[in-house]
Amino acid sequence: MNDFSNAIKVTASGLHAQATRLRHLSENIANADTPGYQRKTVAFEAVRAGTGEPTTVSTGPVLLDPTDGERIFEPGHPLADESGFYEGSNVNLLIEMADSREAQRTYEANLKMFEQTKEMSRGLYDLLRR
Amino acid sequence: MDIRTLFSNQTNSIQAATKPDAMAAAAAEKFESFSATLANAEGEAKAALSGNADPHALVTALAQSELAVETAVTLRNKVVEAYQEILRMPV
């Protein structure tokens, strides 16, 4: 494995991690109105395959945000308690949108690195082509 | 040093440098890894077509095989070029 193919491997792991993150964010957004839903958070982990091997990135275990959900007053709701409140999800749409925009930006940065790696290797081989 | 000793020296050094067995083994290893890369790309493409593969894995495999093919083609062109250069040599 040369450095170029290693770089491609690392970049692809970054793309994959960001795509996974985006999937969890979309699950949060889709469940923003689900009563009792706890938003999922996912952390990234560096993966060291061994000496001489490139350090890739992967998503760690999915964790649930333990904060309480929004209390919504709706006495007719089947889940409402005696006081007429029920617990909604603890998803904050603003946070999810900001996170997904960040995932998009990082994804784009990784795509750029992918293109750059290919361009550099092509430039190297062009030296032999005359 | 006359022309004969010069010639025999050169022949000896060429024979020592090439070592056909070691070179062939190294080349075979490289070709095996090359064909493994291509086979990997092919497998990923098949899996992606049947819809049960991660697109990132497909893109990675195809980019790796593109790199490998590009290397092989450049090497082949260089070897053919050198061969033609030898053929053109006035005898």
Can you walk through the features of this model?
The complex is a heterodimer of chains A (130) and B (91). Chain A has 130 residues and is an alpha+beta fold. Chain A has one domain (3-129). Chain A is built from 2 helices and 4 strands; from the N terminus they run αββββα. In chain A, a hairpin with a 6-residue loop joins β1 and β2. In chain A, α1 (3-30) runs antiparallel to α2. The model of chain A has no long low-confidence stretch (mean pLDDT 91). Chain B has 91 residues and is mostly helical. Chain B has one domain (19-87). Chain B contains 3 helices and no strands. Chain B has helices spanning 3-18, 20-49, 55-87. The longest helix of chain B has 33 residues, at 55-87. Chain B is elongated. The relative contact order of chain B is 0.07. The A-B interface holds A 4-5, 8-9, 12, 15-16, 19, 114, 118, 121-122, 125, 128-129 and B 54, 56-57, 59-60, 63-64, 66-68, 70-71, 74, 77-78.
The number of distinct β-strands of chain A equals 4
Domains of chain B (count): 1
- What's the helix-strand series of chain B? HHH
Over all CA atoms, what is the radius of gyration of chain B? 21 Å
DSSP helix count of chain A?
2
Low-pLDDT residue spans of chain A: none
Oligomer: heterodimer
Strand elements of chain B, count = 0
Mean pLDDT of chain B: 83
Computed over alpha carbons, the radius of gyration of chain A is 22 Å
Strand content of chain B: under 5%
Low-pLDDT runs of 5+ residues of chain B are none
**Count the helices of chain B. How many?**
3
Q: Give a short account of the largest sheet of chain B.
A: none
Helix/strand-derived class of chain B? mainly alpha
Mass-distribution shape of chain B: elongated
Give the end-to-end Cα distance of chain A, rounded to a whole number of Å.
26 Å
What is the element string of chain A, with H for helices and E for strands?
HEEEEH
The largest contact between protein chains, plus residue counts on each side, is: A-B, 15 and 15 residues
Shape of chain A: elongated
